[in-house]
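Objective 1.3, modelling of assemblies. Example input:
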Amino acid sequence: MNQDTFVISAIVSNEAGTLTRVSGLFSRRGFNISSLSVGETEDPHISRITLTSSGDEKMREQIIKQLNKLHDVKVVELMDTSRTVLRELLLVKVQADAKKRSEIYEAANVFRAKVVDLSPTSLTIEITGESSKLDAFIEYIHPFGITELCRTGLTAMGRGDYILKNQTI
Amino acid sequence: MNGAEIIVNTLIEQGVDCVFGYPGGYVIKIYDELYKASSRIKHYLTCHEQGATHAADGYARATGKTGVVIATSGPGATNLVTGIATAYLDSTPLVAITGNVAIPQIGRDSFQEVDIFGVTMPITKHNFLVKDISKLADTLRTAFQIANEGRPGPVLVDIPKDIQVMEYGFEEKSRYTAERETNVTEASIAEAAQIIKDAKKPFLYIGGGVVASDAGKEIIEFAEMIDAPIGSTMMGLTAVPNHLPYYLGMTGMHGRFAATKMMYAADVIIAVGVRFSDRATGNIDAYTRGRKIIHIDIDPAEVGKNIQAYAALIGDVKEVMQMLIAASDKQTRPDWVKEVASIKASKYNNVKMSDSHLNPQYIVEEVNRQVEDDTLIATDVGQHQMWASQYYNFSLPRTFLTSGGLGTMGFGMGASIGGCIGSDKRRTVLFTGDGSFHMNFNEMATAVSNELPIIVVVFNNNVLGMVRQWQTLFYEKRYSNTVLNRRTNFVQLAEALGAKGFRAESCEEFKEAFAKALTLSTPVIIDAVINKDESVLPMIAPGGTVEDIIIRGED
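Predicted structure (tokens):
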């Protein structure tokens, strides 16, 4: 991960407009946002957002403070990435006729990716991992010809007892 | 109980006895219930929804209570936007209620439909779109709580028409009372007290937060305790009585010479309830270089937003100041006191405009001489606003209604109305310019309808003076669109609207006209004719420092 890149996790209320509030805050205050993933938690009233951003320490501090001011944001944590499991999921469709397939399969194996769809002219591969691993895989696969690619953005969870608790519950 | 009844009952439960607004198709049900409840809650009808938000804002500024404004969907709602943004930038507690089309009609570009929830998201502390009748009352309660807790601000609640007619139970709940939040530790207080104790030249820099938390008394006590002069932002002007010997006046771009000079001379700035706006600090590097800043504010996000503080104390400023006082002992700084006094008495700090003709300083000071201490002073935005800030001596908190952060021309007329109503029709004076007044003078009709004792003093120079001043200084006198060339006869205008009008072209005429106006309890417009080349001085150009200050007669 780049030196000035950081990961923020937030526990938010699962209300209409919450995501807009969070993303709107970033654009309005000129904060960078490089990825954002969001989903409902085990409690349907609560969602969890993971976002990656970059900036100096001042900006990092402001992002945390400004997020904390949003009414729908319950907990904000600047993740200590040394104690955090970081994962991203990538789907990529690669042009592959029968001749090239085995080479791609081999790469998928090495990267611990899975082939999830197959057609006469293409392969679709699913891979999860830290962003750097996904980047490396894309770089390798690129010469074969990428038809489509999508990634979910990073999601993060602290290891062991590094837990984000919603104090308001 | 139907939704509209629940709205009105919740407002009453929250202690609201007056609201400002304008009816329309999608709030007609709410207005029907307001009609029935008119003995318990008074609705003030303005001429335009913008005037209604400014009135609710002015009401809140003058009283410290939450201002409430009601508008219909679509254009009614969008007309609130400037007023909500004004309240947001100046941290005024405001609850805006808008009607909207029925839920099944939302998203179909229905008649008078607008996504006001989306529009106001960046200019409210929080906003709601109520889609469930069972949550209506609690949503409104939460709106009042959010508007008041911590750093105050506006909240909008958008209520579709079908919610207003649905039936649901209502149970009165006890009202939320804002608690004073403080997160400072004894250690951090002790550290701040030590920094101050070690200071040779401490300076108290106070802002709107001191007014909001009613901490004027603590500021005075602390200033006396540590021999520190006080400078104020525009939002903090009423926080302490301006006649105090160690009070130096407003700092910043158009601040008093002594206030700005001493702030730059200080080695420790104790900044209380301020947010270091660019208009207040000028050049940030020069401002922070060589001095320690102790930042005291309720909003943690303000610390480090515009300047890096040496130490920060987060909490209600009244509580924090009390703790700081308890942790400090009497300190004397005779050299600093002498230096401050000499700069305060210096000629640069006491430059006067020539009284050979009617001039802005005379107007403000003459009003100050004639009115009682509790008079509400409102302004619009521009040169007259700065003159009022520079030359009026405030005695009591919450007597100055001015748009500081957003700088909203057209704010003053609505704000005067709201402030005047909130303070039981107390005498109110609006200083405005012929530019600003032309924006929203329609609300003069509202003042007339409600027989409000508002005196509007129009600084009439037939130009947009502040922009013109910048054109003079920075654009080689290319006066692009700042010459108004209007033919408005303000005396006739006043009469046409049912008010009284006077015109003054000399100091004598103004003195007389204002004295006459004070004898009337109805709205008055005084057309005060001033020279178009009067400028607001001192001035520090944007990004400048005290070294760049321009003083009258020195340019």
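The radius of gyration of chain A is 18 Å.
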